[in-house]
Design a protein that fits this description.
The chain has 13 helices and 8 strands. It is an alpha/beta fold. Helix 9 (205-221) packs parallel to helix 10 (233-245) and helix 12 crosses helix 13 (298-310). Keywords: FAD, Flavoprotein, Nucleotide-binding, Oxidoreductase, Proline metabolism.
């Protein structure tokens, strides 16, 4: 409950326009701990830096919940540009997108969902260059539509090309995971970073941690590829013990973490022979993402304040 109160307070303050203006003006130098840069070239350089340590990258152009067809199509073109930049690279090609940034809330003149039109364009290109695309999960009102669209896209492009995300703190998620088993999907399991009402999301950290373990273990036991997205060393160690006990090969799972957080742990896991990826966000629409990172841990607030005072 304390974690929820803290998150609510931070995100409430972050939503204040005056606070946003100050952070946007003075906070970019601090935000760069979590965000690779303004443009695609910055992000690709970040991927290649991580590759030298045996850690792979997940590129994510920041932006979400667009309200115009022009903006959605512009985001789609920028994501296609990521594919062009990755084409021919010698390392794994991996991109994360939000359906809401490419038109999930919009309809074309012919009556099609614009997000699906753009997703198909992106996945066609990804398939051509051998890239994998992760459909990020957003706040709870979008879960049903996102899962339905993921199912449709997975049936068209295959689960080697497209996967999605499940959030452990939602009460519904264990049932959602089981309902996807027929696809044998590649799922990224996260705890959840949005401020959700207690009617849909668990307020206590202990309950979320327990749900996270249940989801991860169930997906692994079902024989599905699992991206274990956590910086919690106790969870990581438990997963390592679980896969040994159940004879699950390293080729069936990976560890994922955020850019700029626990680089030491990322390197150590990679040296131990595990697949490790860092989620690398970039772009000018960094404020919402940055706010959610600050809301995750009190220590992040102190880090930000120190950095802004130096600025």
């Amino acid at each position: 409950m304390i974690d929820r109160i803290y998150r609510s307070a931070v995100l409430g303050v972050a939503g204040n326009k005056a606070v946003e203006s100050v952070v946007r003006t003075r906070g970019w130098s601090v935000a760069q701990r979590f965000v690779a840069g303004d443009d695609l070239q910055d992000a690709v350089r970040a991927v290649e830096e991580l590759e030298r340590d045996g850690v792979h990258g997940i590129l994510d152009l920041l932006g979400e919940m667009v309200t115009s067809e022009e903006e959605a199509n512009t985001f789609a073109e920028k994501i296609l540009a990521i594919m062009d930049a990755l084409d021919g690279k010698p390392y794994p090609k991996y991109v994360s997108i939000k359906l809401s940034q490419i038109g999930q809330d919009l309809t074309t003149a012919s009556g099609e969902n614009l997000g699906m039109v753009n997703a198909r364009r992106i996945l066609t290109r990804a398939q051509h260059i051998g890239a994998f695309v992760r459909l990020d999960m957003e706040d709870h009102p979008r879960v049903d539509e996102t899962l339905a669209q993921f199912r449709e896209l997975a049936s068209e492009f295959g689960t080697d090309t497209v996967g999605t995300v499940l959030q452990a703190y939602l009460y519904r998620t264990e049932q959602d995971r089981a309902a996807l088993d027929d696809l044998h999907p590649n799922l990224r399991i996260v705890k959840g970073a949005y401020l959700e009402p207690e009617t849909v999301a668990m307020p206590d950290k202990a309950d979320v941690d327990a749900a996270y373990r249940r989801l991860t273990y169930a997906h692994l036991k079902a024989g599905n590829y699992t991206a274990v997205a956590s910086h919690d060393e106790s969870i990581i160690e438990d997963v390592k013990r679980f896969v040994i006990a159940h004879g699950i090969p390293k080729s069936q799972f990976e560890f994922q973490m955020l850019y700029g957080i626990r680089r030491d742990l990322q390197k150590r896991l990679a040296k131990e022979g595990f697949t490790v990826r860092a989620y690398i966000p970039y772009g000018r629409d960094w404020y919402a993402y940055f706010s959610r990172r600050i809301a995750e841990r009190p220590a992040n607030v102190l880090f930000v304040l120190r950095g802004m005072l130096k600025g």
